[in-house]
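Dear U.,

For the methods section draft, I wanted the exact inputs and outputs in one place so we can describe them consistently. I've listed the two proteins in the order they'll appear in the manuscript figures. Please don't edit the token lines directly; just add comments below if something needs changing.

First protein:
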Amino acid sequence: MAFARPVLTLFGLVVGLVLLVVVVGEWLGAFERLTDRVPFAVGLLLVLAGGFPIFYNVGRAALRRKVTSHTLMTVGVTAALVVGEWPVAAVVVLFMHTANYAERFTTERARRAVRELTALAPKTARVMRDQAEVQVPVGQVRVGETVVVRPGEQIPVDGTVTAGHATVDQAAITGESMPVEAGPGARVFAASFARLGSLRVQVTAVGADSTFGRVITLVEQAETHRAPVQRIADRFSAYYLPVVVTVAVLTFLLSGDALATAAVLVVACSCSFAMATPVAVLASVGAAAKHGLLIKGGRYIEALAKADVLLIDKTGTLTLGRPQITDIIPLDGRTDAELLRLAASAERYSEHPLAEAVRTAARERGLPLGEPGDFQALPGLGVKATVDGSSVTVGGVDLVPEAGDDPQVRRLAAAGKTLLTVAVDSRFVGVLAAADTLRPEIPAALADLDALGLSRVELLTGDHQATAAGIADRLGIPFRAGLLPEDKIAIVREYQAAGHRVVMVGDGVNDAPALAQADVGIAMGAAGSDIAVEAAHIALMRDDWTLIPQAVRIARRTARAIKINIGFTAGYNAVGLSLAAVGILPMMVAAAAQSLPDLGILANSARLLRRPASRT
């Protein structure tokens, strides 16, 4: 957002230039000569043509019994036209467009989330028909048919595994950080991947009826139904307009001067009210970008300033999103390093994500790996290889039945960790535990948010109960586990129905509906999926949780700046209104005087670019 400062400067120059031209023109009598030469009907058409889009929107708002900041300016334009001063009306329309131009710089980007989600959806499926594999478009697959999924392929449907074993990565759908082993009877989801092994899947849902299809639908619905945040300026205008009209009526009743009455309406119905919000937002969007925050619209800044509930995804959001070895427990007199080296050597050529975690742990300790001989991948179980002349197997607890009786194994399993047993020549010799680890800055960031008033925090995850409990207990927050995307969006709506302003933080496709539904959705940018980033309203340019309290501070500073802008404009207009009411302020000068508060707004808003966010 490096353009924010030059754009604010440009607005200041335009406003100052228009002010100079109008004031000098009025002093030299140029506008009177213009009025004499241009028929009023032509001037009227120019004003109506130039202001039609704004007048149309004001009319629509009026039919809904809503008053906006543009309503104020429309009243001023109408008053000028009623007394025959079309040049005054034209000047007001010019400032109305200036305000709209400023606001266009702060409107959110067009949504690409649904389009990108659709692009991720499986396109074809390999179906068993007449004892042969036939590749067909996913839309032609019928419930009850059998789909064949080969290693590395995307699963195209929701269904139940009838044959085969595979390691399935379904984090995008369920949010589970660890891949799952799918065998006969297991449930699998469209858009997940069979990383290792092949499957035969009996179809239970296809296309829009699949879990992934429902994610797309939920994002669309959330974008359509999310209630917009009413701008501060619009709320102020609803109270301010009746005051202005009352003063104008009193001016006419006491003086009988139609021009003074019109001048009251023109000077009081300033476009500064329309500029108060967008110019401050523009400056804050630029300041936020410098801190590593991409904010997609002014409405989200206002909503974030008032937020009181924080809902958090786990995998990739609170955690790093990849398994790491957390415990090494040898049981036969070996050292930790010896057990880890054996396991990493056996897993040296495995493609399983847990194998990579084992190798990484060995690499970090500088352990030299042996060359595995007779390597075998055991689908759904683990691996087997010859290391240093011994037969070494590494895999789940099912691979070594007696491992389940060990108290340390039971303790690690209860903590929600994924276990890798190690056996040498069929003898159980130790266990490695893996888990998705917590981001180190999380506790301090949550304490910071609590100090800012977001004390109601809840963890929402599709992961297992035990895994979620381990993370939530460390942070001292409540949690709900085993959630699908529709469950998360329902929880967001539950809080909103209770009157809360909800912030949702997530990173995956499964979070996209909740991110879109929340008053403010925040996506982890660097590690987050493109879908989550597009569905969210704020994206972190780097995966650093300290940016979230920073975003709250920026939002609150912006809200204060907007209130100062409006207060300054209201005070200025009160003086101008008084001068116009007693006939001191001519009509054209009243129109030009509208631009002076704009300069004050620009100066106040520019402070948001310079001053770093304070810890308040």
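Second protein (the one for the lower panel):
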Amino acid sequence: MNPNARPHIEKILANMTQLPGVYKMLGKEGELLYVGKAKNLKNRVSSYFVKTIEHPKTQALVARIYDIETLIVRSETEALLLEQNLIKLHRPPYNIMLRDDKSYVYIFVSADKPYPRIASGRGKGRHQAGKFFGPYPSAYSAKDMLLTLQKLFNVRQCENSYFSQRKRPCLQYQIKRCTAPCVGLISPEDYKNDVESSIRFLQGDTKALNQELIGKMETAAENLEFEKAVFFRDRLGLLRDVAAQQAVYKVKGEADILAISYLAGVTCVQIMHVRNGRMLGGKSYFPDMLGDDLGQMLSDFMANFYFQVADEIPQELIINIDLPNQKQLETAFTQAFEKKIQIKHNVREVRAEWLQLAQMNVEHAIKGQLSNHLELNERFHQLAEVTGRSIDRIECFDISHTMGEATIASCVVFDQGGARKRDYRQFSIEDIQAGDDYAAMRQALTRRYKKAMLPDLLLIDGGKGQLHMAMEVMQTLGLDPFMIGVSKGEGRKPGLETLHFTDGTKIQLPEDHKALHLIQQVRDEAHRFAITKHRAKRDKRRAGSVLEVIPGLGAKRRRDLLTHFGGIQGVLKASEKELTYVSGIGDTMARTIYKVLHE
């Protein structure tokens, strides 16, 4: 008899088939905990209940299993496809979870006529018709490319609602980042040429663009149109600079390069993207994995990533380790995406350099994560000692608004693996008196815990007042969570926080206590998440440039700011001192600008 299996589970295992299929692990209330696939259902499912199993996540899963259901299929490929469909449909808590599984960022050229826009967005083709380029590993890399496109081709990037309402050119035209098609300062034919040049640039066709710009520059010079010739000369110089930066790893084709590494309980997968012959960068993932075979872990990750997270798959996947089911995975990808997908391990020349680069990155990333992982575990351990109870999942709430405007409540979630961003929630607070933080927190807690499960620890950013209000909400909902209120110390100085408990006791931990560091980390993340969402909501509501709401800042100085820093992002990154370097901006105005943009 399997030592970890309860009697009714033992009966299920005894009668289980040895055919391929999918198994579903169910909890006591019938909730789906985990979905898996197997070439031999009996052998695979029985392996969960052997005495030697050590993985803490697997142990936690086995402890909750109350029933097991199976679905028989004809092949491993069918099992893989069915498994991914069930995961996508039900999102079981113990399946592979990518902690940051937002869609990748793409640059798209819209289908709007006669003046398409170029912009970035997450998810290929989800909310926008047009041509898509990417994916880009981060929003920063996509924005950097958009800035380059603005400088090179001046194609508009504004929203359609803003574009349709313009009566005169905006600041983007004045700083030479747009040709003002909104007010007809460029013909549809010339604009179309700029759009086509942008597309060719995104496709990596810089050689033809280079020759075209040389021709235009020489023609303008021959016609004595020296201002136009200088314009093309500057574009040509910028294009050459960009092309030189992108010359590394130049090769035809598209590929994803995946490298996996495992060390001391932490698994990392590095994905690097090559599109149109250009390396677009990479991204590290730290998935929660069940199992100890690196090849199987990478195979499971690839199936989960390309079926559940990614918006596309290239025809070539280059990996750093053999897969036990490579043929089945290739077949499944080929069937699902309706194009031939090849998975390669032994590669040469440039592809070998890509793989080496991915391997270097995954080893670097896992060392950094391991350092954070051990530190985080120690923080959770010391928090458990302070509270006298085991704590794995922490949820924390915070409220953000500007004098009562655009109130947002945030809920962030941490466990011993770090921030669980996929579980973050934000609540747009309505129908309360402006600036009433108690009412905002009451509304957020009520909306959150009407349905959601309680965490091991609920952190409330605030003192006794906020904590008592939270206790009233929980009592109304018939719940009794473990809660701590966190009030700031004298002068709001970090390290002087006081922890308030529901029984009326309070403690002040030493400034160097790791439990306090964990509480500060979670609370600061809640504050960051709340204020980020609040600012986005506030700025959208104000429906205009953030610079336009700054008192005393006229159109000329707004234009000078944008010109000096290369756009609004540059202004946002500037320090108060750097703002004074702009002509006409003194210390007082710089302080006002910085305060409005950052406080």
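Candidate sentences for the figure legend, describing the second protein: Residues 245-250 have pLDDT under 50 and may be disordered. DSSP finds 20 helices and 19 strands in the chain.

Thanks,
Y.
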